[in-house]
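Q: Please design a sequence for this.
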């Protein structure tokens, strides 16, 4: 029979296999971010897309949705971000006005709705990537 110390070491090694490192976290959260990006795109396109608009200088808002495997400051922390491009104009600012509204625009909360409706897909994508990288169930 193994000593308590050996049993604890074995348990610790099993648990350690299930905790993703920073590089794995980056891959896992990027899978979720890609799902959320797709939801942002669909919501933006269905609510705020003007067909036939000249896009030679500025993209449609829906076409400016991006997902990145870095945090908002550009650091590789294991987090991923989803948002709108800033160049050549700040699409995120426009999306904020359309989502929340202004004195002159009634907000339709399309981003909030996209986040709520995609939670299950985001978690499923992250879980699938987690299983692929760590080999199993977190429990």
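A: Design:
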């Amino acid at each position: 029979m193994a000593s308590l110390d050996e049993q604890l070491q074995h348990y610790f090694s099993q648990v350690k296999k299930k905790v993703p490192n920073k590089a794995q976290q980056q891959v896992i959260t990027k899978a979720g971010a890609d799902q959320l990006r797709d939801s942002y795109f669909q919501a933006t396109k269905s609510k705020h897309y003007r067909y036939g608009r000249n896009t030679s200088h500025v993209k449609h808002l829906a076409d400016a949705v991006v997902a990145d495997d870095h945090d908002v400051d550009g650091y590789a922390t294991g987090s991923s971000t989803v948002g709108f491009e800033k160049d050549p104009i700040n699409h995120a600012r426009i999306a904020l006005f359309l989502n929340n509204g202004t004195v002159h625009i009634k907000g339709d909360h399309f981003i909030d709705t996209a986040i709520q409706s995609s939670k299950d897909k985001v978690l499923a994508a992250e879980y699938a990537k987690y299983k692929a990288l760590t080999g199993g169930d977190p429990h």
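Q: Thanks. Anything notable?
A: The CA atoms of residues 22 and 75 lie 11 Å apart. The chain has a mean pLDDT of 92.
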